[in-house]
Each structure stands twice: as structure tokens, then as C-alpha cells.
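Lab notebook, page 48
Experiment: co-folding of the full assembly
Goal: obtain a model of how the components sit together before planning crosslinking
Operator: M.T.
Materials (sequences as entered):
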Amino acid sequence: MADVDATLTGNRGLALEEAVIFEQDSPGLSGVDLPQPVPGNDRLGGLGRSGAIGLPGLSEPQVVRHYLRLSRMNYGIDSGLYPLGSCTMKYNPRLNERLARLPGLGGLHPLQPISTVQGALELMDACAHWLKVLTGLPGITMAPAAGAHGELVGLMTIRAALEARGDARKRVLVPESAHGTNPASAHACGYAVESIAANVRGRVDVGALKAKLDADVAAIMLTNPNTCGLFENDIIEIADAVHDAGAFFYCDGANFNAIVGRVRPGDLGIDCMHLNLHKTFSTPHGGGGPGSGPVVLSAPLVPYAPLPMVERRGDGFALVEHAGDSSAHPLGRVKGFHGQFGMMVRALAYMMSLGSDGLRQVAEDAVLNANYLLARLKDTLSLPFEGPCMHEVLFDDSFLKDTGVTTLDFAKAMIDEGFHPMTMYFPLVVHGALLMEPTETESKATLDQFIETVKGLAERARAGDARHFKDAPRLTPRRRLDETAAARNPVLVWRPPPPQAAE
Amino acid sequence: MRYLPLTDGDRREMLAAIGVGSVDDLFVDVPREARRDGPVDLPEHLGEMEVERAFAAMAARNLSTADVPSFLGAGAYGHHVPAAVDHLIQRGEFLTSYTPYQPEVSQGTLAYLFEFQTQVALITGMEVANASLYDGATACAEAVTMAARITKRKKVVLSGGLHPHYREVTETMTRFLGIEMAAAGPDWRGGEDLASGVDDGTACVVVQNPAFFGHLTDFAPLAEACHAAGALLVVVVTEVVSLGAVRPPGEMGADIVAVEGQSLGNALNFGGPTVGVLAARQKHLRQMPGRLVGETTDVDGRRGFVLTLSTREQHIRREKATSNICTNAGLCALAFTIHLTLLGEVGFARLAALNHAGAVRLADRLAGIDGIDVVNDTFFNEFTIRLPKPAVAVVDALADRKILGGVPVARLIPGRAELEHLLLVAVTEASTEAHIDALTEALREVL
Amino acid sequence: MGIVRYTKEHEWIRVEDGVGVVGITKYAQEQLGDIVYVELPEVGAGMTKGAEAAVVESVKAASEIYAPVGGEVTEVNQNLADNPGTVNTDAMGEGWFFKMRIADTDEVDRLMDGVAYQEYVESLS
Ligand SMILES: Cc1ncc(COP(=O)(O)O)c(C=O)c1O
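Observation: model returned without errors.
Model output:
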């Protein structure tokens, strides 16, 4: 294909360039018509703003066009396969969006009288009920705002429970394959982090774990299925050992999609686990957030859960907002108001749409799709750990050895083929990781096209065409960006260009 | 099942390709005793209409601020969100994308976050801002740990004008970090003295403008006192629209500003999701939590944007990261930035002026009712009144008349007799004259 | 030029008139890639051998730099604040990190010399 000649505008047909809003300023314009305030005495006490802020003025059509053009420079699940391992990029149902916007839900203020929000509390309680049944654990806090927040809240709950029994412990054990948020959360809870090695099968080395378990260990943080996409077969033995040492078992539930409706974490000896509603339960990732990270809890932890709590009282619902109103020893508040209510609406709509039968099918299809990738790509790519895998499959970069192509280059070439790349360089336990999570919402035809593309690219890499990969992507709104320059000289806010010197 | 594209035929073919007889064979690593053969005890799947009906029934058991006069504030404000905002944030390319780790296919997200950071820096009067945190309360907690890292000190002073949720969240989130918290009592009259509590062990003082009770304060003298002691000043803003009318924290000498941005572009959502954001001085950049977007060029020399300074973050630095945050509030930041772009310089100032003028009008009306005292001399769009009866009872009586009359202080700070009669009342551009009439009428009746 | 010694963590120390100049080796900077930031210790900081002395960052990684020997920091390379890339272009020269007064010169003698370090690096690949 011949390269298209440069255009006068920089646009290329449907691929449209777009300047930042600050460069589209027509001073005085506004895209919102508001009445002129009636002049009167102000009560700002002399603290009124003086001088201009520097915000640009645009009309509504200019604003709509700006963001529409920006949106077209993005790839979303709605665009195509997004096999980003560990992130569960599944279809985000539009029904969820409609329901979250019902005035009787989206238009509720968090501090209305409790009698005026009974439906909202019922909804939170229903969402909590589904999550407790699916995980087989008796307690839950709906407060955390995302997975990492749930990790920290879960650990703080554990620490509060331990300290209440006069048992201050100092360390948390985290496998080396763990997501970065795990050690970061343990640190933010004031714990020292100790790493546990993986065995040759990509699982926690149970011997190494037991050797580190002692009366100073507060908890282990295990991801299951783990970040290599594998189920920790020894999990019950691990749980027993952890409990014998008087510690708690925290499970990172980011990968719950593999087992939802089929395996209940409560049956595995887990005490505490966050659920990323923006992964397993289909709430949109929105280019980075918002999320929601409810944490399910075993009985010994329930009294220490944070505020607030929804409680059934008679035929209505109460909201426990203060420690004094609770018979337990709540941790205190971890977020403003009552958690990510809008995400609970979406997650509940999703769970009710699929039901117990559908959710089980979700896990099965997610695992089936991943194993299909494994089976059809294992002779092309290199597989560090034998299958079966769960909802995601991990390859390493040994298939690229001596080709001059890196995992990153390979991913960039996939972008030109119209796919979002898989997760790269995570988990850290294998070299040049490529972690693929297709999710259950991809059709076989899409997977087949993806498989053929990966095979074709691998062949091209082995044929010595490294240039093709180094130059990729070629067909995106921007090609590879200079991240070194961005970090050496950070430009984080737009500044007007210096005035041109007069000729 | 409408969300699942595999057919039974596909499943059979795929199992054959894998070389197993049934999907159960893929779950062999699960301990036998934990494998469930049947579905869990929950209802079966439902069609879209049935789900819609169930949610409509739950929604009908609530009283929506959209349907009745509402004067609720206290950190969450019912502003009018232009139609274009909600339309644009539902573009699939925005709604269904992940964190922009692959910049070549994420220039849309990266560009709007760069614009967002710039807007936040401008309205707060600060030099840099991050690409969002969960909400204002957690942003406040992050500001405190950031200040402790910068100063290498452990003592923190919290103003009695700080939103009680922000105080509680900050206390909980730092509980196991050895930070010594001194929280002043509720400062409902305004004018508390915080400077005298600052010494050479103080990491930061945290204040709020407008305060929880509505007062406005010039924090420049406090900033000076902090800086003289080597401490930082953290300013919290829970009503971001106020920045269109009120002198920004950056001009008062703030070192870190923690903002709740819900008021721009975001619905009330019963309190979440909203959007927190942190703004700071350039010199403290490397201690900031959260993602940052920076400008750069691509291999063809064209301007583009990337996530930058990521070595501060958990995915690289693990337990040494500045925060554990990963998922943030991206889409809420998008709603914020679209709304602020629509408003522009003129619209933002006018929106703020309208809010203030409405609040002044209501304050004057309420001051004319027997038994009601307006507590504040200064305020933006929210102020405290003192009622002759407990505020909770009054608010319940108003709710019976389908008016959401404000937030009783005792809802957030219970068990203090002197606060029991205090009510926070907020006005926005969405409050009409008829709403104001209805509230004053109803208050006359119930008092 | 004084003697140069190396650590297994890929720091070098050059001793000139009883003062140690510390940096990272050419091999270390190659492993890190383009260096974007160097966090330096404070002048006057005392440290024991093996203590965390500095942090060096590329776009996707951060590594701690440890004091090769015990002593007190007497000077840091301010030039790295604006030009961290100097570590890439001249790791063993202009790209030095800090200077230190050495507490115990015996500690220097126990480090690897150039030949031993070269062998060590070769054993890594
Ligand atoms: C395994 C794992 N743990 C934890 C997290 C953190 O969750 P969140 O991004 O919701 O904070 C993620 C997701 O990014 C993850 O993949």
C-alpha cells in the first residue's frame, strides 16, 4: 500500500486532527447560556476573585466536535478485542448506563433523610447480597472506591481485628507475581512487605510460604486465580497454614471473572477479598475509572468493617453512619458518603441480567476463550507454564529470541492490525510477559482472527523483518511517543506560546 | 443470554481444539471440594425489560432531587449538567477504554486529561494537578500523606471547618502510619485559631474554603505561619464552583489543594462516583500520588501526550510508591472537563455568581423568619442557619412536604447539643425562585 | 586519577585524595535505558556501607543506588538535575552522583577491581 500524500490540514479523511481547547479560545464565548445574576450585595467578605482565570471560550458545537474528535483517537471495548490481561475488558451493557441515570437513582443526594432513599438502600443491600452469595462470605463493605482501595480497606480491617485481640503483627506476605497495588496497599497500612517466591508451575511455593509464616505475619495477600492466569491448587492448604499461624487470608479478587458462579472463595478459606465491579461485574473502565471495590469478609472480620453500613430494620433499611450507632467496632470512614453507588446500580443490573445461570456461563466462557487462545497459540508463542489456564493465558518472549523484536514492538504491531495489545511485562515473574485475557464477550470469529494475526506477526518476526515491528504503529493518530523527553522535562499543563518577536 | 456471543456449536469446536471433553476439565486445578456442580442460590437471568422494571420500582421508593425543591449540599451539589456532557461521556471510545497505557491508541483520553490538569491548575491557582483521585475526601487523605513525605514530619492539624467525612477519612486512612492528628472542634462560628498549633514538628495544616459551615477565610496569614515553621498548608475545596467567584487557594499560599469536582459535570449519584483531584506546586511534583499526563512528540515530530513520571506509582515502585491508587475517576474527570470547557471563562464566573446571588437571596429571606438565625457573615452558595428546634426534625417535616430542606449538622456530627439546631442550606443555579418561596413557606409552617 | 572499585550492585567509587566519587557503571546505565531522573542524597548525610544513597529512574523503572562504602556525603552532582542523560553518555565521568568522605578505606579495598567487575558482568549474561 502506497503511503498517502501529506494533506494540507494534517487530517487524513476520517482521521481528524484536533488542537487543545486552549488553542481554540474565542474570548467571550460560552457553550452554556445562563441568566445574568441580579446584582446585589455580595457576602464574599472581600475574598472575591480578581483577574481572569485563563479558561478558553467555546460554543457548544465546537465543544461537541472537540470531544468527538478526541474520542475517535481512542480504542475501546466497543471498538474491538481488548485482551488486556488482568483488566477483564468485557462488554459494558448499555442497560446499566440507562438505569444509573434514572432520576430516582442518579439524582439522589447522599444526605437526604433516610426515609426518602429507601429504594437506594434496598439496591445497595441487594447488590451486597448477590456479592455475598457469589463469594460465600458472610460480610461485606460496599465503601471502597476501587480494587486498590479495597485492598487497603481489607488490610486495615484485618489490622483492626488483630489489634483488637492485642496481636500487633508487622508483616504481610505477598507473592512476587502480585499486582503492584498489593505491596503498595500493605505499605499504606503500615506493614512491612515480604515477597514469596513462585514455583516452576507458576504457583506460590507452599514450602517457601510456610517457612515465612510466623506469629509476626498479619496476612498473606494472594491473587486467585493468580496473575499468571492459573488457579492456586494448593489454596486450601495455604489457607490452613495461614490460619494456623493466626494470620488472615486476603485474596485479590481482580480475577474473579474466572470462577464467578462456579467457585465460592469462602469455600477456599479466604477471609477477605475485594471485587472490582469494573472488571467482573461489567461497569465501564471509563479511560481509567471510576471503579468500585466492595470487600467481602469472613465472620471474624465483620465487626471491624468500615462505615457506613446498610442494615435491614423491620421492613425498611437503615444506614449506620457513626460508630456510636453500631454494636460493632467499625473501622471508620474510608471514603466520602456511601461508596460508589452509581457503580453498584450498574453491577446489580448486570448480575440480575445474567442471573445465577448466566454468571456461571460467564466464568465458563471466559475460561474456554482463554484456553482456546492457549491451545491455538502455544506452538507459535512460548508458554512458561502448562495449562489449563483460567480466564487469561500468559506467554513469555522467548519466541522472539534473536529476532530483534521485543514484546513491546510486537504489541505495537498488533495495534496496526486493529487490536488492542495484551498486557505486557506483567506479571514480573516471567521475562517479557504477554498476558492475554479475551473475556467471555468475544465471539469465536473474533478470537480466530486474533489468533491468525498473532501467528502471522510471529512468523514475520522470525523471518527477520524487525523493521516492521520497530516502526509500528504506523496507522494510529500518533506513532510512538517520546516518553523519555516527557519524563525529563515534564510539561503537565498547557501554557500559551511565548509572544512572537516582531519582525 | 444477550451478552454472550459463543454458540453451543462454537463451544464444542473450541473444546475439541483444546482437546478436552467438557469445560469442567478446564477447572481441574480447583480443589474438588470447592467445585460447585449447580448454580448458586440466586435468581436466574432476566430480559432487559424485567430488569428495568425492577430498578424503576426501587427508584420509585426514593425522592429525587430532580423532582422537588432541594437545598442539600455539604460536599455534594445538585447543579445542572448540560446535555452535551452526558452524551459525550457515553461515546464508547471514552466509556469503554482502559487506562491509557498504550498512548498511540489513547490520545483521546490523554489529551482530555492534559486539558483537565490544566483547567484544575488554573482554577485553583496552582502549578500542577494530577489526572484524578477517587473523591475529595480520599484526596484530602492523600494530601496529608504527601505533606508528611515532603516535610518528613508526622504531626497534622485539621481545621474544625473541614467536612466531617474528610476528617474521618483522613483519620482512618492514616491510622496505621504513625501520623499524629490534631483535629480542632467544629468551627461553626468561624474564626478558629490554627496558627498557634503549628510548630516545627507540623507536617501540614488542613483547612477548607468555603468551610463545611460555609464561611470564607483568607488563609494567606495561616500559610505564612505554616511556611515559617516549615509546614505546608493544604486547602480542601468541596464545592469547586466556588472557584469561579472566590480567590483561589494558590493565591493564598496553599501548597497542596484537594478538590472534590462533582459539581462540574457529575450527577449526585447518591454520593459516588465523583472525582477527586490534587493540585500542587511544581517543586513537590515527585511526591504527588496518582497519574500524570505530559506533553511530548511522536517519532514524526507531532505533539502527543503520554502518562509520565510513573516511577511514583504502584505498578513500578510497588511498596515504595507515593500511593496505592490505580483505577481513578477518569470518566468523571471527563465530565468535569467537558462541563468546564462548555462554561469557559465567562460561563464559569457567571455560574459562580448565580450560585452566590441565589444563596444571598435565600439567606436574606430566611433571616426574616422568626426564630431563624443566619450564622455566617460570609459564604459562597451554602450557609448555616440556627433553628429554634432540632434540625433533624425540621428536615423530616420538610421532607413530608416534599422539600429537601438542607443537611442537619447533627447528621454528620452527632451527639453535640450545641450543633443540634444547625442546618446547612445550599443554593445552586438549579434552585428557582419558586423553590426558595416553597422553602421559606414550609419553614414558617413547621417551625 | 585515583583507583576505581566496583560493587555487585554496579556502583563504582573512585578515590581521589581520600575522597570517594560515586556513580553507576556503564553496564548499569545500559540496563536501565534512558535515565530521566536522579534523586541525590543531602550533603552532610552520613551513611553506612550498603545504605540507600540515591535513586535513579528511567521511564519504566527505578533503582536504588547504595553507598559502596561508609562515610559522609560532601558534594552532589547538581548537573544531573537538569541533565540526567549525562549518566547515559558518560557514566564513569561527568555522570558521577556524589562525593563522600570515606570512613574506612579498608572497605574500599574489599570491593572489586576493574578486572573482577568485568568478569562479574560477563557472568551475568
Ligand atoms: C490483579 C490486580 N489487583 C489489583 C488491581 C487494582 O484494582 P483497581 O485498579 O480497581 O484499583 C488490579 C487492576 O488494575 C489487578 O489487575
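Interpretation: Residues 95-351 of chain A form a domain with the Aspartate Aminotransferase; domain 2 fold (CATH 3.40.640.10).
Next step: discuss with group before ordering constructs.
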